[in-house]
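Rotation project, supervised by the postdoc (A.L.). Task for the rotation student: set up a whole-complex structure prediction and record inputs and outputs verbatim in this book. Inputs entered:
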Amino acid sequence: MRKLTRIAAGAVLGTSVVAFSAQAQFSKPDSAIKYRQSVMYVQQVHMSRLGAMVNGRAPFDQAAAEQNAAVVEQMSRLPWSAFGPGTDKGRTNALPEVWKDRAGFDKYAQQLQEVTMKLAAAVKSGGANAAKGPFDDVVKACDRCHDEYRKD
Ligand code: HEC
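Outputs recorded:
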C-alpha cells in the first residue's frame, strides 16, 4: 500500500520527480544501477535491429523500423535520473567522471535525446535512406559518452 501511494505521488508530481535523489526513486543504489544498465541494454537491442535494416543487412520493414526508433527515443530519456548520488559504487561500469563532471555527462545525455528524436522523425518520413545519417549520429552519441564515462 505504501509503495502504491509513492508511485501515485510520483505520477502526480510528474517531471519534478526527476530532481529527487536516486534513493528517493529506487529502493537502493543497486536497483538504480540495474535500471540504467537494463535501459541501456534495451536501447542497444533496438539500435541493432534498426541498424540491420538501415544498413541493408535485413529487409527494410517500415513499421518495425518506426517501432525500433521509437523505443530508442524513449529509452534515451530514461537512464539519467538513475545516476544519482551513491550509485557510483557496486556493480557499475560507470566511471567516477560521471559524478565529477556532471555537466559534461548531462550534455552528452541531452545530445543523445536530440539525435534519437531526429532519427525517429527521419525513419517516419523517409525510411531507410533518410535514416542512415541520423542513425550514424546516434551511434556516435552513444560512443562519445562511453569513451569518456564508461569503463570499456
Ligand atoms: C551520456 C552518456 C551515455 C550515452 C549517451 C549512452 N550511454 Fe550507454 N552507458 C553509459 C554508462 C555510464 C554506462 C555504464 C552504466 C553502469 O554500468 O552503471 C553505459 C552502459 C551501456 C551498456 C551496458 C549495459 C549493461 O548491461 O551493463 C550498453 C549496452 C549501452 N550503454 C548502450 C548504449 C547505447 C546503444 C547508447 C546509444 C543509443 C548509449 N548506451 C548511450 C553512458 C551512456
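Student's summary: Residues 97 and 148 are 8 Å apart (CA to CA).
Supervisor addendum: The pocket of heme C is lined by residues 33, 36-37, 40-41, 43-44, 47, 72, 92-94, 98, 105, 108-109, 112, 138, 141-142, 145-146, 149-150 (CB under 6 Å).
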